[in-house]
Recover the amino acids of this structure.
């Protein structure tokens, strides 16, 4: 009506896609990481703090993972095609695993260097500039973690969630650096605290990397959903009164989504059309009730294919 009177066309505001939001958040993180890495490295060199230089290297690894998320996001949301009938979401899992591996490598390298120099006597205590840089890093990285984690959870992006933990680890690793550098500054005879702080940093990093790598590996080797989710799938399928039994439930993760296939037993005298309609109803019910399930393949069996109760899966 309004269009006819004014001749103007109302255009709905454009909504950014999931991958566009992922890239936007990650680009912001990349520039913040670049700034903090430069700040901590310069402050670590000028302030003569090995722990802060190690923390700067940790921030540089964030740049690599940021780049991986930005590059991967251009591909993993592509729709299925002839060569990838299940889509490209496993690429997000590979990026997630890559982030974890990069974290582990950085943690091992930092820890090895710190341990190998623990017995060395420091020439002088770290300067106050190192203390200030560590404090600034904690504030910036914690804010970046909260924003990235919140967005990753909203978008159900494992890669963005993993990258958020990379930010959180950087914030946590700067905390012992701040304590160690401050202690070494206030008590010069305790200058070894700076290197102890670097060791603590490496432990934080390695722990975070394992929390990222293991779920990604589980997905890549087709680990299934927990038993309670399989139980829920069976209960939903039985809501169709024509389903006599549900067995051979198999699941696998595809990024944050789940692919399901299962067998249902129905009356043998039903027509092909009736069996198809029952299977389609079961599929719709499961997808509607469990949001993370992407698709369900339902195989229809006659009563003679039913399994003994103790063999049900």
């Amino acid at each position: 009506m309004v269009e006819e009177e004014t001749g103007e066309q109302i255009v709905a505001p454009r909504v950014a896609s999931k991958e566009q939001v992922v890239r936007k958040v990650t680009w912001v993180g990349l520039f913040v990481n670049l700034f903090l890495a430069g700040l901590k490295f310069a402050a670590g060199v000028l302030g003569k703090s090995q722990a802060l230089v190690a923390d700067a290297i940790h921030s540089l690894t964030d740049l690599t993972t940021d780049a991986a998320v930005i590059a991967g996001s251009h591909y993993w949301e592509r729709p299925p095609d002839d060569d990838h009938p299940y889509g490209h979401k496993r690429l997000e899992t590979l990026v997630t695993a890559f982030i974890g591996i990069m974290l582990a490598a950085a943690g091992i390298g930092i820890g090895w260097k710190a341990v190998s120099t623990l017995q060395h006597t420091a020439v002088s205590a770290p300067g106050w500039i190192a203390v200030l840089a560590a404090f600034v890093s904690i504030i910036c990285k914690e804010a970046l973690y909260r924003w990235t984690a919140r967005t990753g959870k909203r978008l159900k992006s494992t890669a963005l969630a993993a990258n958020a933990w990379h930010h959180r680890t950087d914030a946590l690793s700067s905390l012992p650096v701040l304590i160690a550098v401050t202690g070494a500054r206030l008590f010069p005879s305790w200058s070894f605290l700076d290197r102890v702080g670097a060791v603590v940093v490496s432990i934080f990093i390695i722990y975070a990397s394992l929390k990222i790598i293991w779920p990604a590996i589980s997905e890549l080797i087709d680990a299934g959903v927990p038993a309670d989710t399989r139980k829920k799938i069976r209960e939903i399928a039985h809501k169709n009164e024509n389903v006599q039994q549900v067995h051979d439930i198999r699941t696998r993760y595809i990024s944050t989504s789940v692919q399901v296939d299962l067998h249902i037993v129905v009356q043998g005298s039903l027509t092909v059309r009736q069996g198809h309609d029952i299977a389609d109803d079961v599929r719709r019910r499961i997808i509607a009730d469990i949001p993370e399930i992407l698709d369900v393949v339902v195989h229809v069996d006659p009563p003679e294919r039913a399994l003994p109760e103790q063999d049900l899966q």
